[in-house]
Amino acid sequence: MNKKSPRLTFKKNKMNKYLTIILITFTFLLLLAFAVTEIRERACQNWKSGWTAWMERNPKKALSYWTRNKTTLIFTPRPARVYYWSIQALLELEQFKEAAELRAELFRKFPADFYTFMLYPNAASLISEKKLKKIKIHFPRPWEEEVIFASKITGIPKSTIWSVMKKESRFLNNAVSKAGAVGLMQLMPLTAQNVAKQLELELNDLSNPKENIIIGAAYYALLQKKFNGDLLRVTAAYNAGETVVCKWDTLYSKDWAEWIENIPYTETREFVRSVLENRELYRAIYADDEFLSLYEILQNPLITNNCTISNKITKKDNNNGRK
Questions:
Q1: Whole-prediction pTM
Q2: What is the DSSP string of 41-110?
Q3: Domain annotation for the chain: domains and CATH numbers
Q4: Which residue has the higher pLDDT, 323 or 84?
């Protein structure tokens, strides 16, 4: 009768041990993934239920959803959003002390977030120098000469141009979206052609940074005229197309903050938030642009149907808001 070698037995036991560890680890990660998905879905549902209650003008019910489990906030897209609207609900309920405490917590946890900028008049300027130095790494200013030129020609602040560029292409000049948007400013070819024709700008190669930046800034400037300077609608239209933005029903939104949340396209909603957040941070970091802060913009009354449709640029591809 053959006896197994002690060395072989040891190797086999060691291998079984490793396989067991791998199996346990895999099972744990799988269960963790399921748990995170479940928590995320629950947190998102709490947000949606709260928003429905808020739009029904029931702040108490909305707050009950938004504060149901604060530990799950990190699993929601933009946790600062829940803070912001919880503060609004508390103010509606005249719970001013609680609102002030939550407001301070929002700034402490999310000093560089869109929703903090909505709530504080000069939030970006309050960010510590140490924090700004860390943030600056993610806010470069590539193609500076081209951006300065485009800003002078169109009147669009440099910070805005870089903010659009950062969100649209992450500064990749050869970026092409699934829908066919091209370059740094992610322009649809037909839109770019129409803008260039209207303003008599040179357009030979849309992937060329200089041409792409100037056409993108010019398009943004044209949208400002069409939307009578409504920056939020302008930014939404840059992503989704001006026709659909003009068609959006804004009558159920009582102010600009609600208007943003009620943008029907998820991508466009986040585009607006990201671009305006970037804009505030660029100004805070480099301090070389002058424009109204997000907080100041939101103080303006929401005017419905504040746009004019023109056939000149509305040939913009319908899927631009869903790149």
A1: 0.84
A2: HHHHHHHHHHHHHHHTT-HHHHHHHHTS-GGGGGGSSSHHHHHHHHHHHHHHTT-HHHHHHHHHHHHHH-
A3: 14-110 (1.25.40), 144-322 (1.10.530.10)
A4: 84
